[in-house]
Design goal:
This protein starts with a strand and ends with a helix. The chain has two domains: 191 residues, Isopropylmalate Dehydrogenase, CATH 3.40.718.10; 138 residues, Isopropylmalate Dehydrogenase. By secondary structure, the chain is α/β, with parallel strands linked by helices. Helix 1 packs across helix 3. The protein has a twelve-stranded mixed beta sheet, with helices on both faces. The protein is 41% helix and 16% strand. The protein is globular. It is built from 14 helices and twelve strands.
Length: 334
């Protein structure tokens, strides 16, 4: 890789800083690609101290310097910082989280960073300092000049890849937000990304139904026959390997998971519940369809356990590993 990964610090009052520091401490064990953190040098040092680990922090002036610093210290770019106050989020910490996210994304767009890895944010806290997006996925789509429908959230772990086709909305709104065009559009993005970024030559997609038993022939709803099945037929006619609509209660069993590379779910919890049940400590949120690589641990800020030495760094390590692998694959294919 010719450029390091850029890591946004997330909310400094959450577990983000300590799992970033812990990931650096375990960098050799997991073969992590070089990365640097945007801002929060003091926070990172204090978070490492709270876990009782030795993590020297070294400020850098340019992303490229991280390649030389990474083996001896955790590189941090930028002088922005706040007092470390685990479990007590405030506006200053939210402002640091937002600035770190924006700068890390900018480095990736400039290609001085090979990918963005985002630590967890508190959306409500960020809203207090002007963040107007439902989540980081929508922010990244906007910054990259894309429609929100073009940025697709995929949750990925060792056991499962799952994509919610509708994301941050009330459950009651899901049926009205679903459309044949939405399913087709996002399925194409997922198939392209699995091929380009994950090296799967002929991706297999399994599509969930919306209703119990996938509607049971219309007894429990007509969305499967009216919207989902026609979308699947169109995608098949284009040569994609797509099956469904499947009853969601049977699609995530061990045997069923062997038959597809990614499951397309109709709403947020239909995708995230099985992923978190199977792979909580190694689950990664990866945004598909962007001109840059972006991953994140698939969990929140966990303010209640910050600095208590119980936060598992597994998902952050997995996010860093996935970002490095995706960036390397993109670089090798041009």
């Amino acid at each position: 890789m010719t450029a390091p990964l850029a890591v946004s610090i997330g909310d400094p009052a959450g577990i983000g800083p300590e799992i970033i520091a812990e990931s650096w401490a375990r960098r050799r064990d997991h073969g992590l690609a070089p990365f640097f953190v945007v801002g929060g040098a003091g926070v990172l040092g204090a978070a490492a101290h709270s876990r009782g680990i030795s993590v020297p922090v070294e400020r850098i002036a340019d992303p490229a310097h991280a390649l030389n610093v990474f083996e001896r210290a955790l590189p941090v770019l930028g002088i922005e910082d706040v007092a470390y106050s685990p479990g007590s989020p405030d506006d200053r910490g939210a402002a640091l989280a937002l600035q770190s996210l924006a700068e890390a994304t900018r480095f990736a767009l400039l290609e001085t960073a090979s990918a963005v890895v985002t630590a967890p944010i508190a959306k409500a806290q960020l809203a207090q300092v002007g963040f107007e997006y439902p989540g980081q996925t929508e922010f990244l789509a906007d910054v990259c000049g894309l429609e929100r429908e073009d940025a697709v959230m995929m949750l990925a772990g060792p056991s499962l890849r799952a994509v919610p086709l509708t994301v941050h909305c009330a459950l009651a709104e899901v049926p009205s937000r679903l459309s044949q065009d939405l399913i087709e559009h996002r399925a194409r993005i997922v198939a392209r990304a699995l091929s380009r970024d994950f090296g799967i030559a002929a991706p297999r997609l399994a599509v969930c139904g919306l209703n119990p038993h996938a509607g049971e022939g219309g007894r429990f709803g007509d969305e499967e026959a009216r919207i989902i099945a026609p979308a699947i037929e169109t995608l098949r006619a284009e040569g994609l390997d797509v099956t469904g609509p499947h009853p969601a209660d049977a699609l995530f069993t061990p045997r069923a998971r062997q038959t597809y590379d990614a499951a397309l779910a109709m709403y947020h919890d239909q995708a995230l519940v099985p992923l978190k049940a199977l792979d909580f400590d190694e689950g990664v949120n990866v945004t598909l369809g962007l001109p840059l690589v972006r991953t994140s641990p698939d969990h929140g800020t966990a303010f209640d356990i910050a600095a208590k030495c119980v936060a598992d760094p597994g998902a952050m390590i997995a996010a860093l590993k996935m970002a490095g692998a995706m960036a390397a694959r993109r670089a090798s294919h041009g």
